[in-house]
Specification:
The protein is α/β, with parallel strands linked by helices and about 375 residues long. The chain has 3 domains: about 55 residues, no CATH class; about 120 residues, Rossmann fold (3-Layer(aba) Sandwich); about 160 residues, Rossmann fold. Helix content is about 35%, strand content about 15%. It has 13 helices and 13 strands. Strands 10-9-8-11-12-13 form a 6-stranded parallel β-sheet, with helices on both faces. Strand 9, helix 10 and strand 10 form a beta-alpha-beta unit. The N and C termini lie far apart (about 75 Å). The relative contact order is 0.11. It is a single-pass type II membrane protein.
């Protein structure tokens, strides 16, 4: 009898797990906690797939983590941007990397083990993860604490071996959770974390440049691409320059252009943000650089390169095709100047470039939900030019 009961309990557990994994929740009928999660993640679809874990089926962080499976349209742009979150989802990266596991052990890290920890959870795509790392690192430094991560997701792409403590995920369960109120907005409360006298877990996307404004050179020095990524990016740029007809006109000024489309073109996202930057914006930004420099070559990276080929008619353009998102980011960052569109991937292309950056003044659109809720002066860098 006891054995039968155990088998019955096991079968029941399997059944409940199956239902939890594939349970579809209608947003309109969702409880307040799920509505809050969707709002903070800016997910626009009404139907969300939620994996409810046994122990924490309704906690904010667990739900956010699992909402990566949201049902976006499976376009090429979707695949492009989802690929950039491969490390954030904990899936192994098939690219060879110059960083071995031995480079990630605590014994090789420069830190003081007596310091308190600040930790962040990586979720979202590559641009989101870069914000979480940069902000988390700077917040930790400003509070004389260590940045502690249970997985160094970005080390396959960047040189992040130093000044990071690798800890077990179980250790974070004792950390005090400090939640970001809004996205993006600079949280003053993060400037005095020592008052809590404990380890801190920062809950949020942390998408505000003010978090790391006092550590800009430090952050940029850490966000140096791995050598193989630099080789791929430089090889593409140099080959394009070599075969460009612009060579006959003398020194070439390179300008990167990122065009974000993909899931951002959906009707629901447009309802939240307003229309995406159109060709009038890109043409105006290109004309701006052509008026300043005699010989300009534009490098275009996008999650919808076919759309770009149909719309960018200039002869002075090169399209980045068949590159991974991180190589595209490296290409854009290594041009002299950058024209960005929308999204955190675009933001980091501009920030890492070091040159002049142009961004769309009309995004998010006046009166849109994004424009009303977000503090964009904490998002767009003050030295960038709006057009």
């Amino acid at each position: 009898m006891a054995r039968r009961l155990r088998y019955f309990a096991l079968a029941l557990l399997v059944g409940v797990t199956y239902l939890a994994l594939f349970h579809t929740v209608n947003f309109q009928d969702s409880p307040e906690w799920l509505k809050e999660v969707q709002t903070n993640l800016d997910l626009s679809e009404e139907k969300l797939v939620v994996v409810k874990t046994k122990a924490r089926s309704r906690t904010y962080d667990s739900a956010v983590s699992q909402l990566r499976t949201a049902e976006f349209p499976r376009t090429d742009g979707y695949k492009y941007h989802r690929n950039s979150s491969r490390l954030a989802r904990g899936i192994s990266d098939p690219r060879p990397t110059s960083v071995g596991k031995e480079g990630l052990t605590q014994s090789n890290l420069t830190h003081n083990p007596t310091k308190r920890c600040v930790s962040v959870m990586f979720w979202g795509r590559l641009g989101n993860c870069l914000f979480q790392f940069a902000s988390g690192y700077a917040i930790a430094k400003s509070n004389a604490m260590d940045l502690c991560l249970h997985r160094s997701y970005l080390t396959s792409y960047f040189h992040l071996e130093k000044d990071i403590r690798i800890i077990e995920k179980a250790e974070m369960e004792t950390f005090k959770r400090v939640k970001e109120k809004q996205l993006p907005i600079h949280q003053q409360q993060f400037g005095n974390l020592k008052q809590f006298k404990t380890d801190i877990f920062l809950d949020g996307f942390l998408q505000a440049w003010r978090y790391f404004e006092n550590y800009e050179s430090d952050v940029k020095s850490k966000l140096r691409f791995q050598d193989d990524i630099i080789r791929d990016a430089d090889s593409f740029i140099n080959s394009s320059l070599k075969h460009s007809s612009n060579n006959a006109r003398g020194k070439i000024t390179t300008v990167g252009i990122h065009v974000r489309r993909g899931d951002m073109t959906s009707e629901n996202m447009v309802a939240l943000t307003g229309p995406l930057p159109d060709m009038a914006y890109f043409n105006s930004a290109m004309a701006h650089f052509q008026s300043k420099y005699k010989n300009v070559l534009f490098f275009i990276a996008s999650d919808d390169i076919d759309w770009c080929k149909r719309n960018f008619k200039s002869k002075n353009v090169v399209f980045s095709e068949k590159h991974s998102p991180v190589v595209d980011l490296a290409i854009l960052s290594r041009t002299n100047h950058v024209i960005i569109s929308v999204g955190t991937f675009s933001w980091w292309a501009g920030y890492l470039s070091g040159g002049e950056v142009v961004y769309p003044k009309k995004w998010p659109a006046e009166g849109s939900i994004y424009q009303r809720r977000l503090k964009m002066q904490d998002y767009y860098y003050p030295t960038w030019k709006s057009m």
